Each structure stands twice: as C-alpha cells, then as structure tokens.
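Entry:
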Amino acid sequence: MEAMDPLAAITHLASKAVLDQLHGVIRETVPDPRVLSDWQVNRIAQAVAAQAEEAARLERPRQRRREWMLLIVGLIAGALLSIPVGIWVNHIS
C-alpha cells in the first residue's frame, strides 16, 4: 500500500466533506430524484467546489501580500513609536 502525503490526505478529506455538504444542500433544495439524479447532483457539487477552490487559489497571493504589508507597516509603526517613548523615558529619568 502506498503512503499518502498527510497534506494531500487532509485536503482530500476536506474536499470530500465539502462535496458531501454541497450534495446535501442541493438535495434539500431539489428533493425529487426525478428532477435531478444523484449523478447530476454530484456533478453540480463538483463544479461548485472546483469553482470555489479556484477563486480561493486566486485570492491566496493577494492575502500573502496583505499579510506582508501589515507586518512591514507594524514594524515601521513600532519603530517610529519607540523613538518618542525612548526620548520621554530618558527625559523623566
């Protein structure tokens, strides 16, 4: 038996859980199996999950840039704030 990468296993379980949840939501919305078969519901759920994953994948680099910018701004703000505080502490001691 081939060992599976832990991250791939988690991703597979998460995607299966999302597909199951989407399947349930679609089946609740259209409960009559004569309107949509289980095969069609599964295909719709897969398409929606793939579209959501693609949107999330496109958002990731933007999120990383935002996190780096917040880190840099925080470091600069901390440095700019520490200078007057240091001067004030030296003045009162």
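The chain has a mean pLDDT of 84.
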